[in-house]
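INTERNAL AUDIT FORM
Audit reference: QA-55
Scope: verify that the stored structure record matches its stored sequence.
Auditor: D.O.
Record contents follow.
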Amino acid sequence: MKKQLCMILALWLGATCAYADENPLIMLQGVVNEVMRELKKPNNDYKKNSDALFSLVDHHILPHVDFVEMGRWVAGRNAWQKASPEVREKFIKAFKTVVVRTYATALLHYRNQTVEFLPSRESYEGQTRIKVSSLIKDVDKGSTRIDYYLIKHDSKWQVYDIIIEGVSLVKGYEAQYGDDIRAKGLESVIPKLLHNKNYKRAA
């Protein structure tokens, strides 16, 4: 389940797109299609070249994820407000690297799954937050429901959480680091993030 969870997040994160003030559903569809085309190219052997894999994700992931919003949810309102701007910046930098590197490796588990985005039940116009739902279809394992939660900044939509069969990625990270943050403050978990094996792999 962990590998599947990682793969699903990574699938849509790796592509470049410039969807200015556009329907978030169309944006996500475009990202997924581009990622799949990249993964299917016969000359891209990411299993043998992890540096190329990490470079691909590094280059394309940042426009599509709001790591600050994600980090705020993980930290909790009180700890986030108490932390200095410098501590917040260090936390987000380390947290972002761990998340990107963790899910970059999940690209290697791609096995020609297909993605179906479901029609939105609400209009995105005039909204600053919205949910986009999809199904990941696997001929052997059936369908997995994925809900993307997006926030709008100016004309740009970014993802800040993904719910996989009812399980939140943000809440998963909050469960991993939240107790230490609440007990010792935001700065206390930065060393743990820096010593995370996925952070070291990025260095």
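Auditor finding: record pair retrieved intact. The chain has one domain: 2-110+169-202.
Action required: none
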